[in-house]
Fold each of these.
Amino acid sequence: MRLVIARCRVDYVGRLTAHLPMATRLLLIKADGSVSIHADDRAYKPLNWMSPPCELVEGTGADGVLWTVTNRSGERLLIGIDEILHDSSHDLGVEPGLSKDGVEAQLQSLLAEQVHTLGEGWSLIRREYPTAIGPVDLLCRDTEGLTVAIEVKRRGDIDGVEQLTRYLELLNRDELLAPVRGVFAAQEIRPQARTLAADRGIECVVVDYEALKGTDDPESRLF
Amino acid sequence: MRLVIARCRVDYVGRLTAHLPMATRLLLIKADGSVSIHADDRAYKPLNWMSPPCELVEGTGADGVLWTVTNRSGERLLIGIDEILHDSSHDLGVEPGLSKDGVEAQLQSLLAEQVHTLGEGWSLIRREYPTAIGPVDLLCRDTEGLTVAIEVKRRGDIDGVEQLTRYLELLNRDELLAPVRGVFAAQEIRPQARTLAADRGIECVVVDYEALKGTDDPESRLF
DNA sequence: CCGTAAATGTCGTCG
DNA sequence: CGACGACGTTTACGG
């Protein structure tokens, strides 16, 4: 990883064109080949960047030092350097990697194992049930043999209700499945999503991730 | 802006929980208060971060140096530091700011000027036709005097079809306009969006940005 | 490699 | 402050 603090101006020509006038910025060059140009704000997002795979060529033009970064799509990042104030390289070694907990995939997995928390006596038909417009998170059968489509979200927003609505529309055309009703399951459901769901006849269920995880815990299973 | 290269381990507790075992990484502390932890890959995205507004407290715990970053939502980023390999601060001064030249606004403008590329003999009623739920990109009249609502996107995704569907629902309630049909125009239309559009009776048109621009080009207008 | 959905999305703008 | 849409979205995952 190379860290450069430099007075520079930048032009990006690619999916859009963008320009940065001369100023002092951080140029971050990573081992994966990516280049990003940071100001002292905007959280972690750079002003400009080039994602890997790409190539950085340090050249000298009429106006002085010019770095040219290109990728295979022909996008270009041109960095004209006026003055370098700092330049250091560092070997970071191997990154062991990030472990995450609490994402939608886990929630879906836990609910698949414990569909009874959504409805008494329900059984799982399958996870990621395929349709023409994408997979339904969970497809279940209730005690009366009726089909239930379940959309799982970490945070239940209006988009999720729309998504489930589309699935229901399609599934209800399948004579073998119809009538199919919908359940919107999330750790938190926004009021607007709840309203829309009610309007569409979709049931909302707030799920307790910690409780599901607790029940799923191997320790607990012993009892 | 402060740049620290350090052997560290990190825990994030917030919208999810995440953990990074001990390794060497870049800690980037910006003047806006943000903290981000970068490995030597993943383009510009950090492994972990805290967006401003937040507060960084450098403390010493039982296990050595511990940096605690918190925000107002109670999210926490805990950075345990084993060894600092580099630590430098830099005054970047004022950032003049980025200027962008967008594509999708121009696409709409070009199509407004050249609605005939969407349908033979069509005429523009108006751009940004207002409705209760937002403006329709383009409203046109075809050769038979029927109304056409057009949604313009750079990339045609399923969301755009949903958006147009909502407009059509509203516009068709207006007796003076109804019946209104829909056209989904984009440089690229995703298969899923295409399927949904077909299902909704919405026509898809792939537009050639370069060709439109070429036709619009002042040089070309001379002839 | 393409297509799709998730994301600690982030970042504007507009009520 | 919250919603709504755009983003050079990026990123991970599955066929």
Note: The domain at 2-89 of chain A is CATH 2.70.180.20 (Protein Yojf; Chain: A;).
Amino acid sequence: MTASPAARPALYRQVTDTLRARLDAGTYQPGDRLPSESILAAELGVHRLTMRRALEELAREGLVQPRQGAGTFVLRRPATLAVTVPLTRGEFTSSLRAQLETQGQRYTDRLAGSEVADDPRARRELRAARTRMRRVDSFLEVDQEVWICSTAWGPDRLLRDVASVWRQTDGIYGVLLDRAALPLRYVWRSFGAEPASVEDAGRMGVKPGSPVVVREGLTADGEGKPVLWVRRRARFDRVRYVLHYDS
Amino acid sequence: MTASPAARPALYRQVTDTLRARLDAGTYQPGDRLPSESILAAELGVHRLTMRRALEELAREGLVQPRQGAGTFVLRRPATLAVTVPLTRGEFTSSLRAQLETQGQRYTDRLAGSEVADDPRARRELRAARTRMRRVDSFLEVDQEVWICSTAWGPDRLLRDVASVWRQTDGIYGVLLDRAALPLRYVWRSFGAEPASVEDAGRMGVKPGSPVVVREGLTADGEGKPVLWVRRRARFDRVRYVLHYDS
DNA sequence: CAGTGGTCTAGACCACGCC
DNA sequence: GCGTGGTCTAGACCACTGG
């Protein structure tokens, strides 16, 4: 019913399983440096390229992280942070930041860049045919790791000089709440997945093509006019989004 | 601020971009078979392995799909289906099925297997220390493609003989609604991402390690007792989940 | 500058689909 | 049985990190 009578899996896949078993067993501990690719290849009697393919799988699963020139390191286990998604349109509590604080983890919302730019998708989402628009990039760093890359689009009028009012604890909504007189409201949020772009992968320290959780959202002001379209890409092994219906 | 002064990207990455440009330009049309790896490699003057790495990226992005023995085919563009997630705990309308029907797409919810089994995670979620539990696997097929793989856990009492009452239009909730006298309610839903397992990847026709959207959820009966824990893995280029706050 | 991961070419064999 | 993608080995060079 499954496939042919269980053909022997490819060698690199067997190697992956061997290494995964060692990680599970604690042979290699989080933070440890693995033996070099050549050593491991020799030990298991395979070519270095085959070993690389195996290690690549593990990297994609978020178990290890290769660093050129330094070695391949065992990551700490995916203790995914469950970010609560509000079920009503008015709540703007950031469960993410609240949770990080209660767990005593240091986080910083860094502004990566900001420029006046144009994007058809953003224009459509914000229903802004002629407004001058600004794009703001930022990323959330937790315990030395980048967990989330964000891109926000909104009218330049509201986002001008973000750098000067940026607070590393509040992110883009902090800027907006300061400037938009009226209260903010959710219009929609969406959740999906995607392969990491080369740029995001570099920032997050994962392989290009690794899964990232994509959360998009549109926020409007009190009159219902869309003011911000945000697109967040988060490390799949660090972040997931939860809806609690028990309220 | 980004990295070193733009080192020349790796050759395989340049090849990826070349091919991606051709796909964007329509040089290769959806449904077409690409020239073989050897031909393409020769044409661009690279080794076949380098070409393979490039094609692998495109496959991971959901743009092409290699089929052993047959060739590499251009997939139709990711017209992601937006599945509406209800904001109240009682609604059990399946926006997915409704949308597929209005779009005139044929779908089938296939039962893949069912067995009495045990799983610590499922036991914990369902708060069932000693109940005999059953696992039910199914997948949703749309237009010849598998879009979603599901695994559901619940008390054997409610899931016995699923095969005999399974309707290909209703899936697991259909079974449950038939048997649970009381109305069902959501307890929570969560959204994340993950690399596709080898098994799921095979069923969905994607590469192992490709991103999949993971939707988990716990459902309870009218008295609030958890009765079903579901874990869905969906193709990232076909499904995303949306919350509309504008109701 | 030694050692590590990252890339690339070369050439071979295998498993599978299709004709 | 031919052509396709899938795997594996061999050996080389490069880019980067760290002492």
Note: The longest strand of chain B covers residues 145-155.
Amino acid sequence: MAKKTRKPIDDRLLDTAIEQFGRNGLEGASTRAIAAAAGTAMSSITYHYGGKEGLYLAAARRIAEQIAGRLAGTLQGAPDPEQLDAEDALAQLVVLADAALGLMLSPESAAWSRFIIREQAEPTEGFEILWDRVMGPVTTRLVRLVQRAGPAGLRPADARVRAVTLFGQVLVFRVARAAALRVTGWRDIGPAQSTEIRRILHAQVRAIVTAT
Amino acid sequence: MAKKTRKPIDDRLLDTAIEQFGRNGLEGASTRAIAAAAGTAMSSITYHYGGKEGLYLAAARRIAEQIAGRLAGTLQGAPDPEQLDAEDALAQLVVLADAALGLMLSPESAAWSRFIIREQAEPTEGFEILWDRVMGPVTTRLVRLVQRAGPAGLRPADARVRAVTLFGQVLVFRVARAAALRVTGWRDIGPAQSTEIRRILHAQVRAIVTAT
DNA sequence: GTCTATACTACGATAGAC
DNA sequence: GTCTATCGTAGTATAGAC
């Protein structure tokens, strides 16, 4: 099923599927509504993806592809953590955090994140796809950078937990966005707010990683 | 399912509703399934709550009640942030973070969090209920403590963003639990892992809040 | 390849028995 | 207060026209 056709129907179906599966879940979303929103007949889903489940997994693959594509610019040619000193590792951490935050704040990621959060709470085969293609590689790098940038003698297990909490600081702006808006008093998270978050995030990445 | 003969039918309906609405959403969950799992007829939902939507909002109220009850021990009689010096405010922050983490890690909160996360991504009237009764009061206190514990001259807007990221560090263990388990290599988050997280969290709360 | 038509199941709401 | 029965709607899947 891993086809890379450029047929508009396929693409529109996938985009709509990500949106609606993210919003309503595998069971909650209806193939009729997805097909209608994509401007085609429901049976096209059967034809192209074998059914609802096939469409769902294809949507997961698509999300992984798109996130990987967005992060490619940051990860391509990025230095190997093992060969960095603490200061350079910290700088690379900030770069990675920036990229992750950009992802979380991008409007395009709203649908992806809904889909992914669902998979976190109730993992299916879709989680494996997402983990293997995006989350795994990125978190591996994240942990290595934390290990490198952290205080000498930082236990590997600690570095992993720190990496998770680091990720949480970025994640919260997507996952708890409604609450974050109320706490900050912002009406939306636009460029101005994004800059503010980034500034504070940089300081805190430094503080978290270097804390003894 | 454990037999709870003493529990009134509407309580069993609410507990089941939280579980199933959290898992499948308002649209995805079916009143038939909820009623069946609660051991009653579907029409009981109409009788007690007026319909599906009424049950959903009642579930939101129930979640708010239960979380408030769990935090009551921590918040009751807790000192007013405005009257604390930086050090005591930091200590109170740690107490609050501990309570929040305990909430996130508790098995009972799994269903609640699914429900709440859904409301964050797609807020409905249920979000207002949750905000007014729990999130609002708790985050207000959180922001005040951060302001108090932070460096002198910390801008209020900064304190709010820091409060959000602080919350993210705790939230991540519930929301991105599947990923967190893979990153840490843990099979589950039990007492041992909980202690480890707590230890690191304390250090990082301190680091985040006092960072200049 | 994309459509319409159809078979079958499950949904939420409601009426009425008890 | 809780049940069963039933209505109209909407769901997925599939067959077949074009």
Note: Chain A touches chain B through 57 residues (CB under 8 Å).
